[in-house]
Fold each of these.
Amino acid sequence: MEQLLASLGQNLFVLFGLLAVGAAGVMIFTKSAVHSVIGFLFSMLCVAGCFLALQAEFLGVAQLLVYAGGIVVLFLFVVMLVELTKYQEKGIFQTQAKFAVPLVGAGVLAFAGVFRGILFGPNAGQALVLKLGLEGATEHLGNAQAVSRGLFADFLLPFEILSVILLVALIGAIVLAKSERV
Amino acid sequence: MPSFSAGLWENLSHDIHYIWPHILLMVAATLMLWPLDSWLMPWTKAEKHKWALPTLAILVATLGLTLATPNGLGFSAMYKVDGLTKGFQVLCILGSIFAVMLSQNVLGALQEHTVEYYVLILLGTSGMLFMCGAVDLVTVYFSIELMALCIYILVAYLRHQGRSIEAGMKYFLLGAFSSGILLYGISLLFAATGGVTTNLTELNQKLALVSADKNLLVYSGVLMVLVGLCFKVAAVPFHMWAPDAYDGAPTPITAWMATAPKAASLAVFLRVFDTGFHNLSYDWTAPLMVISAASMILGNVAAIRQQSIKRLLAYSSIAHVGYMLLGVLSKDAQAGAQAVWLYMLSYLVMNTGAFAVVIYLQGKGEGERIDDFRGMGKRHPLLAFAMLIFLLSLAGIPPLIGFFGKFYLFLLAVQQGFTTLVVIALLTSAVSAYYYLEVVKQMYFKEPATEDGAECEPMDPYAKWLITAACTLVIIGTAFGPQLLKWTDDIRWFEKEAPKAAVFELPGK
């Protein structure tokens, strides 16, 4: 039973991962902006599914709340507000498809080669096992606790840098959008 | 046994000494955003350009703090202070100081003075300081993002000019794309080592031991990190954004982009490839050699046809990056870092000098096309002489300081066995002399197109000082060129790893 569950988890991970990639493809290749946003939403949901399959419930739920709940709604607002049809008529979108498609195909083939050994090689699945905590953490540590340890102990410096990045983004939005400069 | 929070506090109070310069920059920048200036600096109420001087003061203080920082490793082995960190941090701060000095009058003339401009320079500088000391791929990634985000915004700063917006947009899209590639490469390496570490020293040990079926994974990870970093230094073939971004940005920002972020990115290059991927040099030497050669050739050849001096300097900066990558290729990391640092130092001074001349001329109502330099030798003899010094130095003509930078770098590359690359570098240097001397020819041997004698604009005091200072520095550097290598010999660029930071105690144990 345990073995079955373990293999189920792994299979679920691969399934959700493939779905996420497919949804990302829909997001890029569809012509309508609203469909793109829906594809993005689906992709994010599948990534949340990946997290859940790796038993990282906290990350999965955070992913659901932040992306599906917040960011996608913002995206939809922007898409509704901006009139994209007039740009579509000008034909400025997808003008380089004939170069891009072969390149993407070549990239996909290359990475299929890279991952073949990981997914079907002798040590298949080893990379998919979640290592709880990076340093000294144990299994009995809760999910949220593991994340907070990561953020405030091991990854304190990147976390603080990230907060400054958000501040810069805020300043940048104001600098670029303010109508008058004093 | 200390609790988790006590352990956190203990580590923080121990490690915080390494990042005082960054803290000063960030706190000062945040305070500048508050509308407190009329209380704190009441004497500047009438002036519109009051922010340049405080910014300069903060940067100089940061420079002092940086030099006083103790060496060591901190923040769970994510940030390290050693010779490489400090050396390149000094270059970054100098680049920012020069950019701020140049900004005052340019912004004044465009009526675009805001405090946010200086705040973004300060925050971007703090990102660069983090980049110089980052010894963990996660820190590398986030600090690169911090720096890059500030630059995207500053490139698009003149948002009433179409080309500024276009440049900012192009740079942002390509930069975001390259960040994605870099991050994907990092995640592949993380997976290849079994998902336990992103620390460069540990990666170096673990990557050499991965099983054969993961070799491709490691190879593609290393290549993607290489591509992501090459985007940041604008090495061919990942240079497409550079000419447009340099051309569209406000000229002080162009001067800044050509020097400070390059210094920080090269520090990351040296750190990642000479410590993190040192055992994997077989994987990245050949691609990096191709990139270096392509940057030298394409940068120099494309510069010949440019009409705008900003675009010319943009292409020449691509070529200079190609030369500096020779130092990254060196198997002797210590000597490589030394040669790159010396080259970057000379490049910083002479390139900023050249941009200062361009800005000075713009302040006098002259254009930035190369044709506009016609007859400058008669109109502004001193300025033309300074420009002559900078251009000859950039071309690497002996005995100027640019020559010594190139000489040390090429000598090292020959010693390391990259003879073909050095031959290419020498040939392309000859090409570069052609287009630099073309500008000189315009200045001294061509008559000005129109004689309107636009001398009415006030002088830009900062730019004048900076031109004088840079020119003096180049000449002094020239005099001491032969000793430069000896002086920097004593700097230990890569400190041996200190013992790893304490592992936190678990709660409830």
Amino acid sequence: MKQPQLLDEEKVFKDPVHSYVHVRDKLIWDLINSAEFQRLRRIRQLGTSFFTFHGGEHSRFNHSLGVYEIMRRILETFEGRIHLSYEEKLLCLCAALLHDVGHGPFSHSFEKVFRYHHEDWTRAILQGDTQINRILKRMGEDFPKRVAEVIAKTYDNKLIVSLISSQIDADRMDYLLRDAYYTGVNYGNFEIERILRVMRPGEDGIVFKYSGMHAVEDYIMSRYQMYWQVYFHPVTRSAEVVLRKIFQRAKELFLQGFPFRQEPTLLLPFLNEQVELADYLSLDESVILFYMQLWRNENDAVLKDLCARFLDRNLFKYVEYNPRDFRLLADLKELFQSADIDPAYYLEVDTTSDLPYDFYRAGEDEERIPIMLVMPSGELTELSEKSEIVQAISGKRRFDYKLYFPMDKVMALPEELSGKIRDRLGVMEDA
Amino acid sequence: MLRRHAKIIRLIETVGEVSGRKKLQKMVYIAKHLDMDFDERFEFHMYGPYSEELTLRVDELCNMGLLDEQVETKGAIHMYRYTLNDTGRDFLRFHEVDFGLGEQAIRRMNEENSRFLELVSTILYFNHLPYEEMKAKIFTFKSKQRYTEEEIQKGLAFIEELRELTKAGHTPLI
């Protein structure tokens, strides 16, 4: 067994959510200082939400440290209740710290256009030729692979996997608290201290003492509120639409052989669909914003307009959309074309399934393991069977469809055409 | 615009009916591996690769009134059947989706049961691993399903069959 390699003295990071993040293991300290982990400082946790909530500028670096800290505290809670070796504890801590290391810039939109999944890059970073891989290998040749398996949920110890990926895990607990803190909303708050105190190791994953049910209810409610109030905010979604259209336009122009005034060198591997790990790691949000600054002076009217919209926060407006009204979309497409506004870039329906809503479900399709309570008798009961509050919101679908368009462009059209479009959209004045 | 929705509807139209949520999940996952243009992101869950996005999209399609969902209950087991209705067919008139040769693979998948498709999708999920390691993963994660090595071989042969079906130049058997 590998011997613990501890730092001479504990290091701490001041953190607004957890007060302090404590580091005692040399391996964790070295991982934090690796180039691939430091890159997360340049990737925002909430993508485009800062357009709506200006405080929401925190990074994936902050969040990753927070998940690590929650995991460290869970392991403390488990002391004396279950035996985990030093190596297994370190496996949990590394998985918590590195679970998001494969995220790219504005990953939600970027991944959709360039067709990749950040999870694959996480695996590549852990197992490829990287500083992180070399640090992890100090625990054994197969340690990087084991960390990757925990993150990908394919590790054979279900308890360890559930600590990082389940319906109430270290990742979700940190992002709800952190996103609430930085956006300045109150909805995301719940009593994490109480949750950690009532968390217990179970056979198939973590379970919670019945006496702590109200703290778990609070967590479920926070999750519900954060989704509808923060993550699904229509302005944030508008920024995502504009961003997607920028990437889509850049790709389209590249495929047409458009002569960019300055070659987008760092994006070429993505445009050519031949991305190596080093190419991926050289990308961050500052790179994307740099190209947007260049593109706002490009010779293509669509690309320059979209980039200026994003950088100056002149986003698309929206109206509620009835998804059964197929004719409306077809009519609007025609009207936009006749107005010389390309509907492929300036008209978009955004639906709730474009940003999966992570609602609590009692496992009706048996794919997600529900939250289990340990009753005083020792029996396990699913949360919504005991909690009326959770029962009221679990598994309830809410749908939301919005149609995004550039109101300023519509308003600038000749009155007759503008009127026709606004009439179909149901907006008669500049909103 | 709504193209991601249209692809799911088109898949259901291709086979007429899909019996079971799990089956639909596995069909889309396998189709993605055959280079069919589905966008849903999959992760490893209890029954192999599973997409929350797909679950939501199907819910949405039912809510939009484009798909019909019938639930059959046998004891504690719920079986969901998905079919396309007239509104869904109307929707497809505005959203052209062509799977090309992939349609034959979709029909072929629908002939199999969800237990077998669960095995096939799990094989594909661990396809990057050496055979022995992949087999060990299946036996570990799918212990309740009690798959045999013979079934794994059948699953691998099935994947080859689907790949053949989607290859250009393949003549469909009518």
